[in-house]
Amino acid sequence: MENAIGIVYDGQFYQLLLHKSPTVFKENIRPMEARLPLPLIFSDDQNGQIVNVAYVSNKPEVVGNTVALSSEMLEILHGNSTEEPCSFLPGTVGGATNVRS
Fold first, then answer.
1. What is the structure's pLDDT at 56?
2. 10, 26, 68, 79: which has the fewest C-beta neighbours closer than 10 Å?
3. What CA–CA distance (Å, rounded) separates 50 from 67?
4. For residue 3, what pLDDT is reported?
5. Is residue 1 part of a domain?
């Protein structure tokens, strides 16, 4: 790792990872059903904030947010983003997988 961007919390370093492509959420419904992408609607004041997204009634919603990050910090994060897939968070969240056994 050449460099790492993160936060220090309670004396520990936590790395922040930002993917170059936006995350697409899909409706969280029963397995084996097709799921359409669902838009997350953000207000203008949420631009630049770190948000917590959770499924509420099978739809993704912002359930918490922070104060806006500075434009300099957003540029640093975006400039150090990765195109590598993250094993813990795929580019698409939710959706059906039609697996036969």
1. 80
2. 10
3. 8
4. 67
5. no
Burial of residue 30 (number of CB atoms within 10 Å: 0-12, 13-18, 19+): exposed
Q: What is the dihedral of CA 30, 31, 35, 41, to 10 degrees?
A: 60
**Alpha-carbon radius of gyration of the chain:** 16
| Count of structural domains, the chain | 1
Q: Is residue 100 part of a domain?
A: no
Task: Summarize pLDDT for 11-31 with one digit per residue, the tens.
Answer: 877 778 777 787 777 766 665
Does any domain span residue 101?
A: no
Dist CA 17 CA 88 (whole Å): 11
Give the pLDDT confidence of 72-95 residue by residue, as tens digits. Answer: 888 888 887 777 655 444 445 555
Do you know the residue count of the chain? Answer: 101
